[in-house]
Amino acid sequence: MQEPPQHECSGESCLWPRIRDLSVLAILLAYVWGGIDPRLLHHQQALIFLDTPEFARQFFAAPGGPIDYLTRLVGQALSIHWLGTVILGAELAAVAMLTHFYCKSLTGRAVPLVRFVTPLLAVLMLGVYSHQPTLPASMIIGLAMALLYARLRLGEAGRMTLFIVLLLAGYYLADVAIVFFAPCAAIIQISRRPARPWGLAYLAMAISLPVLAQRYWVPYITFGYEHWFMQESPILTALHWLLFAFLPLTMLLVLAAGLFKRVGLAIWRRLFPRLAAAMAAMPREPQTRTPAERHFAQVVATAFLLIAAGGVLAMGYSREDSTRKLLYVEYYFSHEQWQEVLDSARDLSPDDYPYVACFDVDFSLHMLGRLGDEMFRFPQKRSVLLDFHDDGYQPYMLSLVDFCIRLGRINDAEHFAQESLTMFGPDGRTLRQLAVINIVKRQPGAARKFLAALAHDPLRGAWARQMLSRLESDADLQSDEEVGLLRRRMQVRDDTAEVQERVGGEVTIDLEKVFLNLLDRDPSNRTAFELLMAQYMLYPDLERARKLMSKIKDMTGPAYVGPDGRRRTPQHYQEAMAIYADKTGQPVNIPGFEIEPQTLQRMKEFQSIMASHRDRDSALKALWDKYRDSYFFYMVFGPGDYR
Amino acid sequence: MTTRTQVILGASAAACVLAVVGVWWWRGSVDLSSAVPVGRAAAIYPDYSGLVVPPNIAPLNFQVREPGQRFCAKVSGDRGQGETVFSSDGRIQWDAGRWRDLLAANRGRQMRVEVFARTDQGWRRFETIVNRVAAEPIDGYVVYRVIPPIYNIWGEMSLVQRALDSFDEKTILSNLRSFDSSGKTLENACVNCHTFSQHDGRKMILHVRPGDGKTQGPAMILVDGGRAVKVETRSDGEPPAAYASWHPSGKLLAFSRNKLRQIFHSSGVEVRDVPDTDSDLALYLVDSGKVVTHPLISRPDRLETFPEWSPDGRSLYFCSAAMIWPERGKFSYEANPKIMYDLMRVEFDLATGQFSRLEMVVSAAVLGKSCSQPRISPDGRFLMFCGHDYGSFAVFQPSSDLYMIDLKSPRNPASASGPSATTAASRIATGSEIEPVRLSLNSDRCESYHSWSSNSRWVVFASKREDGVFARPYLSYVDSDGNTSKPFPLPQKDPSLYERQLMTYNRPELINVPMRVTSGELVKAINSAGTRPAVTGATPKSAPDAMWRAKQPSFGPASQPVEAK
């Protein structure tokens, strides 16, 4: 602070630092675009935002509320790939810039590399997806306040007042911002001459404020101070700590190094005055570098920095690879981009293929009309169905509600959607589901209510307004094909007593009965038919599959009617019934169902290869190329990943 | 600052003020006399037309639902100064002070609202809305729960006190945000029903169920003035107190203990249902802190619930159904839609603590509806109750309507002086002689949780008439003959609030003295260990008479209720 300000660069020498800055920023942007994908952040963090006064009011009554509100507002833009990248890039640039100016204010010169480390840590944190959404913005506010504190020239009392005002304002506006601000302000205070102990008082105040506020002002805060330092994963906790501590510790080290240098020189002069004087009198050779040498050094430094940054980001990318791939599956599923669900599921590794992903894939295949032909091209487990129960994992609840709606279990869908609304708040996706549910139930008043709330969602508002307008002209949406389909499927007989069983306080649902009741209600319910058939095949229970197959005549769509208009039978159904006939010796004569000769031929080939191999492994290898996507293969080798 | 700068700034400020005044004057000076009559009433939300309104109600703000670029509404009365409001988005929000003066000047008279909308063709004038201002005021406050539609999981729920002459709302208790002096919260406890004594916010009880922390137990919180204490009403394995009613003396309250269970229907409008598999009634004696019961209100072969004292304190009304569950406390889907509650009455003598003469008031079989939530007007004239297809949980019954009986009707044996010759047994066998009236204020959706004002002229109730999902508090005038006026929703500052609000207003209760207890005091009481009175089982297992006569006096010299077990 005492040294005269120095310019980091001037004239031609400014070029390389700028190139360096821009290159690092470009790498970070590229990482945000391709490595993180802001759309996944938006999906994972489910940042709910409604532009209503009631929604705003709940944020402004508690510390951290304003930044939470702002983050949610700005966070809506993350749903657009390029815009989200620009916004996150701007945040990272702001973090770098504020770090740079803060360091410069403190030491009087730019501290090499430091300004690159903070955004690098921040981008790594973004890549974990489940980080606290407000943290980047809080960091910017904390650093901005530290810079303001450093720049304003005030007396002791003035500085103390300024600190308290900024601390209170920072805590209210962006709670965790004080974790960035207070240590930085304390270091500024400690580094001042003459030394004052106020810096420690600053830290004490910063620690006391959230504790006291949460005890006597607002005990209920979604992310209270306890959560600032403890995250759900160890890596996220480590990144948070690094972000919190990096700048203050670095600055302390820099200041301590300067102090040691000054103190060391003084001791040296005191102990060896003559030697010191003689050394000081010795002529120094000017350290001159040719322009080419300087140029080379800059290139090397920049390249080193970029390689280091790239290496760190590559590590982060690799670490979150499975999370990202799974998020893509969920993201596309929630956007009903069925083909993309399948494409992204192909990237999932066998070890990270959870049950929900399995369901998402099978359901997408069903929506594309390919479940009966392609389900064994993807990893399968013993069940394809979601259990009817509440779950604290929002994507599960969203999938479950969609599942129930498509099936025709509208009241179950309403139940789980309402639970979801209670657990996760007025998420636009849930509001949309509830609107659809109530439209199907011919409750336009309730549908309007959810649509009216959804109309205030920046992303889905247009759809909601359009639906509201349609409801004005046709309250029941009689002419809507999709609504008509769901109404045909909707369970209209209360079968709760049949399908529910309570054992020791736990309610279990007989899903088979649920599906059969749905097919009784609407024999053409393709969702119920295909998913129940898939369940029988996975279990496997070919006797029941055979019985269910009698309903195939009521199925329509490209899976059952070929391009030439002739009926066809999905491949896996043929394979299942071929096995059934082979095992029982009973021919399968079902109206609307046919086993093609090629299928029978394939089964014979399969059986002969099996017979020619004594052990399971060698049979598997022999059958792998031609049969691993068939039901024959599944029947022999069971559930697994045979991609 | 130079003189020139000062002049420029001053002139700019003056120009701004002039511009604002000019715009204001121009807006107010629109000539509406040439507006073309439309020949019908304007579509407005909420529907505030054809009403009887209290003289102390907050401004009835509304939204004009007509096409137009500009809107205007004029409110006027036979006396006093009216008001004209312009709006570009159709929201009509009256000035609170002028509204109050207008209502005060027009008590017992008519109040008119003229609505105008400007389209490309100019101003259009709709038919005048005429409302009547009642002479009798409504109580000053309504206390309700604001909760999400609850299935298995509950989120934030609040007990809120709303002033009826303004839009002021005060959160009395929030299960997430309220805390005591040590910073302890309710840990997401479920805030249940609240019951006031004599419309006095200072004396009440409140029920809570434990939240995430499970440090509390289900409890009854007794509030007297600014103090709150926890009362433990459970015995081992038996449920806590649920629905309650204060005796007019304030010395005791009757409460039900219910073994409720939630089920979900796979079809039909309402998904949820809450059957009551075992219940009976008991009394809580405030001074001694004891719980007592009596065979007439806790029969083993009946399910008793929803107690309600008559204003003179001499009768206890309640709902009672035959126990047709396969066994006590065991639910069956087959029996559930057959559970029908009758409305019963039993005499009570406060001096002796004695119950006598159990009789049926409304037979569910005769009415064809199951009865619940009886509430008697403070003047003792009318009894309003819910009638629905089956069961007792009206708020989850789309068929629930409000019915009323005239307790002073000559046909009502309870109104006759002297003891009736009809025995309880024969009355139960023969059914009611009183014909309940289905009130005109009902809609085709669920009506429930009604509450009388202290002057018996107003009633507030929770209605799902808008959408079938979210209940809103509706107000209606009840004249001396028991006729009800067109109900209207509790006015809000933002008239479109109900349209988008995804919370439900539950159990609105009118009070004329506001609540004084702080949320900190309530939280402290709820989190405390509480006192544990002597309690009885859900239904007495011992011989009724022996039990009744067994023990010591409690609050009377002669025949007293017995401290159970």
Describe the 3D structure.
The complex is a heterodimer of chains A (643) and B (565). In chain A, 68% of the residues lie in helices and 1% in strands. A two-stranded antiparallel sheet of chain A has the order 1-2. In chain A, strand 1 and strand 2 form a beta hairpin. In chain A, helix 1 packs parallel to helix 6 and helix 31 runs antiparallel to helix 32. Chain B is mainly beta and 565 residues long. In chain B, the strands form nine sheets. In chain B, strands 1, 3, 5, 6, 8, 9 and 10 form a seven-stranded mixed beta sheet that branches. In chain B, a hairpin with a 5-residue loop joins strand 12 and strand 13. The C terminus of chain B is likely disordered. Chain B starts with a helix and ends with a strand.
Helix-strand blueprint:
The complex is a heterodimer of chains A (643) and B (565).
Chain A: H1 15-36, H2 38-45, H3 53-57, H4 65-75, H5 81-107, H6 114-126, H7 135-151, H8 156-174, H9 177-191, H10 198-216, H11 225-229, H12 234-271, H13 273-281, H14 291-319, H15 321-334, H16 338-345, H17 355-367, H18 371-374, H19 394-407, H20 410-424, H21 428-440, H22 444-454, H23 461-473, H24 481-489, H25 496-499, E1 500-503, E2 506-509, H26 511-521, H27 526-538, H28 542-548, H29 571-584, H30 597-612, H31 616-627, H32 631-637
Antiparallel strand pairs in A: 1-2
Chain B: H1 3-28, E1 36-41, E2 44-45, E3 52-53, E4 62-64, E5 70-77, E6 83-87, E7 91-92, H2 96-105, E8 110-119, E9 122-127, E10 129-133, E11 141-147, E12 158-163, E13 169-174, E14 190-197, E15 200-209, E16 219-224, E17 227-231, E18 241-246, E19 252-260, E20 263-264, E21 272-273, E22 276-285, E23 290-293, E24 302-309, E25 315-322, E26 341-349, E27 354-362, H3 364-367, E28 370-376, E29 382-388, E30 401-406, H4 424-430, E31 437-438, E32 447-452, E33 458-463, E34 472-477, E35 488-489, H5 497-500, E36 504-511, H6 519-527, H7 544-549, E37 562-563
Parallel strand pairs in B: 1-9, 3-10
Antiparallel strand pairs in B: 2-4, 4-7, 5-6, 5-8, 8-9, 8-10, 11-12, 11-36, 12-13, 14-15, 15-16, 16-17, 18-19, 19-22, 20-21, 22-23, 23-37, 24-25, 25-26, 26-27, 28-29, 29-30, 30-31, 32-33, 33-34, 34-35
